[in-house]
Design goal:
Blueprint lengths: L8 H7 L3 H25 L14 H12 L1 H16 L16 H4 L3 H22 L3 H24 L6 H12 L4 H11 L2 H8 L10
């Protein structure tokens, strides 16, 4: 009987080895790798003069990680990242006003950080349904996750602004989403081919399915 096609890239990689002995190690290593990449990408940040939200590569790494790992492991990689930051490790982007640690989650940019596990989970769930094997659907899956990141970040940021109600959301969008949205989508458009390419490098050949 032919085995089912793995639903995530990590499962595909593990299937090329002895699953009984290495599957758990491959998964743990992949989660840790994405966590480290997320932390490293946070250090490449640019602070803009008109917003408290820094420009980083984190959303792209978070969403690519979710697409490659799947829902459960993708979310785990970001929960581990947040846990490391709360513990005081220097994994968050530098802040001009907030100290490292748990205070970062309670600051103006905390909504973006707290949305990372949910965004990775959603992107991974779409990946498990086949969205991770072709360029266009990979980009669409990551854009869905990006929406979660922005929704969490903008909603949280709005609570720190003097405006209230819809005006606060509009101001938060102007400060926390509008300056980054086009660039983030362009980065996802470039990154969208990475996971499908890795599927092919590890031996997967797409069928003529709807994906």
């Amino acid at each position: 009987m032919q085995s089912a096609t793995p639903s995530t890239l990590v499962q595909l990689i593990a299937s090329r080895r002895d699953r009984l002995h290495t599957n758990g190690l491959v998964q743990a290593g992949a989660v840790l790798f994405v966590t480290v990449l997320t932390a490293a990408s946070a250090q490449l940040s640019v602070h803009l003069p008109y917003t408290a939200v820094p420009l980083t590569l984190q959303p792209m790494i978070v969403l690519m990680g979710g697409l490659a790992l799947g829902s459960r492991l993708g979310a785990a990689s970001q929960l581990l990242y947040l846990a490391a930051g709360v513990a005081g490790l220097p994994v968050f982007a530098t802040s001009l006003t907030l100290p490292p640690g748990a205070a970062r989650l309670l600051g103006p940019t905390g909504g973006y950080l707290m949305a990372y596990p949910l965004a990775a989970f959603l992107t991974g769930a779409l990946g498990e349904r086949g969205f991770n094997r072709r360029y266009l659907t990979s980009v669409l899956a990551m854009c869905a996750g990006l929406f979660v990141v922005y929704a969490g970040g903008v909603t949280w940021l709005a609570t720190f602004l003097p405006e209230t109600g819809p005006a606060a959301l509009a101001a938060a969008f102007a400060a926390g989403a509008a300056p980054f949205l086009v660039a983030d989508v362009m980065k996802l458009a470039v990154a969208g081919g990475a996971v499908p390419l890795l599927w092919r490098l590890f031996g997967y050949r797409p069928s003529t399915s709807k994906y």
